[in-house]
C-alpha cells in the first residue's frame, strides 16, 4: 500500500510540474482559486491543461497542496492555508470531479480506495445487481445546469480580478477547455473497464450517472429571469409532479426526458444572459458548497428486435391482447404468446409486438405466415442463436398449439421501417369458405377465374365505422379461383390475391352495397362468407 501511495504521489507531482511548465498562472492565483473553493481538477481543466491528466485518479487536492508547499516560496517551511477547507466541495463542479470527504450514507469511501474507484465500484454493483450481461458499455452523464453557471461565474470573476495582468491575457481560461462531463467520463471509463472487464465505447448498453444538487439548483432557479420561472410553473401544471405517486407513474426514461428538457431550457436561458447582466445577478465568485451532489446510477440497454413470421391456427385468438369492459375477447393473443416467450429468455422489462398488418380474431393466418417484430426493452442479455432457436421451439411446442413461428432471428431496427413501408405495397392471398343463394354454373366459376386486376371501391365497413374514419378506398383484386366443396351444392372455396388493405368479408357479401363490385353482384345472387384464412403475405423479407 505504501508503494502504491508513493507511486501515486510521484505521478501527481509529474502532472502538476508539466502543467506548471505549460500553462500555470502565478502561484498566488492558484492559491486564490483554491481559497474560493475551486478544486485542483477544475483549476487544471480551466487552464486547458487537464485533458492530458484527466485519466489520473492520483491528482488530488493534497497533491496540489504538496506541490505548492515545495514550489511556492511564500509558504516554504509551513503549510498552505487553503488546505484547511476539507469540508468544502468544489464551488464549480460541486464535488463531481473531486469531492471532499463523503459522509452520506452509501457514498462513504473506504480507506485506500479513490473516489473514482469508489464510483466505478458502485456502477459495477448496479450492473451486477440488475443482472446485465455486458462486454461493452457507454457512459451517460447528467449534470445540473448550475455547474455551467458556476464555471461562467469563476471565469468572469477571474477576468475582473486579473484582467490587467499579462499572464491572464496569455494563458488563463482558454475558450476551448474540457467540460466537467467529459473530464468525469475520462476519469471513470478506464477504472470501470478494468472492474467490469468490458470495453467503453459507443454502445447500446448505457450506464447513466445523474447528478443533482437540490440547494444549488434551487438558488439558480430563483436567480433566472421571470420567463424561466413561468416555464417551470407551466411544466409543473403539465405533469412535472415530483410526488411519490408521480414517480411511480413515470418510467425512469420518461423522467430523464423531462429533466433533460427542463435543463435544456435553463442552458438556453443562461446563454441568453449578457456578461454584464450575469455579473449583476450572480454571485462572483460562486459561494462555497458544503453538501455533495446526489448521485443516481441507472442502466439501460437500447431495444433489441427479434423478427420472423407467425402462423395463427385458432379462430379464437386475437393478434393483440383484446379486452373490452374488463373482459378478454378470445382465449389468447399472438402478442402475448410470442412476446412473453421472447421476454423470458432476454430478461427484458417489457416488449412491444409489431406485425405487417393484422387479421380478425376469427381468421386464421396460414401458409408462410405474417411478418412480425418483437421489440424488447432493456434486455439483460442479448440472446445467442441457440437461445433464439429455443424461443421458437418453446412457442411451437406449447401445449395448446394456438400459434407457431418461423425463421425467428435477431434483426436490426431498420426492419421495422421496411415492414411499415412495405405494408401498402404487399399482396395477400386468402381462402374463403362462402355460401351462395343459388348453385353456380360452370360459366359462373369460369367468369370468376378469368378476373384479373379488377379495381373495386370500398367504403369503410359498417362493422368498423365506430373506430375508423368514413373513407372510400380503391383496391385491386389481382386474381381469383373458385371451386365447389365436395358433397355440397351451395358451398364454395374462393381463393384470391388482393392488394393490402382489402376488406375480404365485405368483398364477398357487399356490405349493403358499400363495396362494389362484390362477389354477390358479380354472380347476381346473395353471397355470404363463413370462414376466412390468410394463406400468404407477400413481403420480401423475414422469409
UniProtKB/TrEMBL annotation:
Residues 221-260 are annotated as: Disordered. The keyword tRNA processing applies. One of its GO terms (molecular function) is RNA binding. GO terms for biological process: tRNA pseudouridine synthesis. The keyword tRNA processing applies. SUPFAM superfamilies: Pseudouridine synthase (SSF55120). InterPro entries: PsdUridine_synth_cat_dom_sf, Pus10-like, Pus10-like_C, Pus10_N_euk. Keywords: Isomerase, tRNA processing. Residues 305-537 form the Pus10-like C-terminal domain. It comes from the Eukaryota. Its EC number is 5.4.99.25. Residues 118-294 form the Pus10 N-terminal eukaryotes domain. NCBIfam families: pseudo_Pus10arc. Belongs to the pseudouridine synthase Pus10 family. This is tRNA pseudouridine(55) synthase.
Amino acid at each position: 500500500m505504501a508503494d502504491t501511495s508513493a507511486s501515486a504521489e510521484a505521478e501527481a507531482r509529474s502532472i502538476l510540474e508539466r502543467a506548471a511548465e505549460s500553462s500555470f498562472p502565478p502561484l498566488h492565483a492558484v492559491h486564490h482559486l483554491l481559497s474560493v473553493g475551486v478544486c485542483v481538477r477544475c483549476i487544471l481543466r480551466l487552464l486547458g491543461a487537464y485533458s492530458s491528466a484527466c485519466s489520473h485518479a492520483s491528482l488530488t487536492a493534497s497533491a496540489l497542496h504538496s506541490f505548492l508547499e515545495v514550489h511556492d516560496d511564500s509558504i516554504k517551511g509551513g503549510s498552505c492555508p487553503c488546505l484547511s477547507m476539507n469540508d468544502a466541495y468544489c464551488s464549480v463542479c460541486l464535488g463531481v470531479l473531486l469531492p471532499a470527504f463523503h459522509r452520506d450514507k452509501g457514498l462513504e469511501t473506504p480507506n485506500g480506495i479513490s473516489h473514482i474507484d469508489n464510483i466505478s465500484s458502485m456502477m459495477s454493483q448496479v450492473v451486477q445487481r440488475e443482472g446485465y450481461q455486458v462486454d461493452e458499455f457507454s457512459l451517460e452523464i447528467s449534470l445540473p445546469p448550475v455547474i455551467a453557471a458556476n464555471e461562467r461565474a469563476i471565469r468572469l470573476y477571474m477576468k475582473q480580478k486579473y484582467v490587467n495582468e499579462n499572464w491572464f491575457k496569455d494563458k488563463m481560461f482558454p475558450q476551448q477547455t474540457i467540460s466537467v462531463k467529459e473530464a468525469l467520463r475520462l476519469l471513470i471509463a478506464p477504472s470501470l473497464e478494468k472492474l467490469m472487464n468490458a470495453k467503453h465505447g459507443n454502445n447500446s448498453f448505457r450506464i447513466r450517472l445523474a447528478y443533482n444538487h437540490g440547494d444549488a439548483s434551487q438558488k439558480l432557479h430563483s436567480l433566472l429571469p421571470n420567463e424561466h420561472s413561468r416555464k417551470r410553473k407551466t411544466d409543473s401544471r403539465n405533469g412535472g409532479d415530483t410526488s411519490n405517486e408521480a414517480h411511480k407513474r413515470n418510467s425512469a426514461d420518461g423522467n430523464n426526458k423531462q429533466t433533460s428538457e427542463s435543463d435544456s431550457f435553463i442552458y438556453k436561458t443562461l446563454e441568453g444572459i449578457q456578461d454584464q447582466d450575469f455579473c449583476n445577478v450572480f454571485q462572483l465568485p460562486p459561494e462555497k458548497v458544503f453538501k455533495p451532489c446526489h448521485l443516481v446510477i441507472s442502466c439501460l440497454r437500447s431495444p433489441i428486435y427479434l423478427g420472423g413470421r407467425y402462423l395463427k391456427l385458432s379462430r379464437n385468438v386475437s393478434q393483440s391482447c383484446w379486452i373490452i369492459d374488463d373482459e378478454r375477447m378470445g382465449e389468447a393473443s399472438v402478442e402475448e404468446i410470442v412476446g412473453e416467450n421472447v421476454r423470458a429468455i432476454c430478461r427484458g422489462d417489457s416488449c412491444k409486438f409489431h406485425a405487417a398488418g393484422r387479421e380478425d380474431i376469427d381468421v386464421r393466418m396460414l401458409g408462410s405466415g405474417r411478418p412480425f417484430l418483437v421489440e424488447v426493452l432493456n434486455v439483460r442479455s442479448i440472446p445467442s442463436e441457440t437461445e433464439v432457436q429455443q424461443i421458437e421451439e418453446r412457442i411451437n411446442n406449447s401445449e395448446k398449439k394456438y400459434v407457431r413461428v418461423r425463421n425467428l432471428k435477431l434483426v436490426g431496427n431498420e426492419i421495422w421501417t421496411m415492414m411499415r413501408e412495405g405494408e401498402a405495397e404487399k399482396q395477400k392471398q386468402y381462402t374463403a369458405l362462402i355460401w351462395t343463394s343459388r348453385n353456380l354454373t360452370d360459366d359462373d366459376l369460369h367468369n370468376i377465374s378469368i378476373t384479373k386486376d379488377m379495381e373495386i371501391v370500398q367504403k369503410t365497413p359498417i362493422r368498423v365505422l365506430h373506430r375508423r374514419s368514413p373513407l372510400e378506398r380503391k383496391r385491386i383484386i389481382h386474381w381469383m379461383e373458385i371451386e365447389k366443396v365436395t358433397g355440397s351444392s351451395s358451398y364454395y372455396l374462393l381463393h384470391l390475391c388482393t392488394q393490402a388493405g382489402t376488406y375480404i368479408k365485405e368483398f364477398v357479401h357487399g356490405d349493403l352495397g358499400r363495396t362494389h363490385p362484390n362477389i354477390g353482384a358479380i354472380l347476381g345472387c346473395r353471397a355470404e362468407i363463413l370462414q376466412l384464412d390468410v394463406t400468404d403475405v407477400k413481403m420480401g423479407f423475414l422469409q
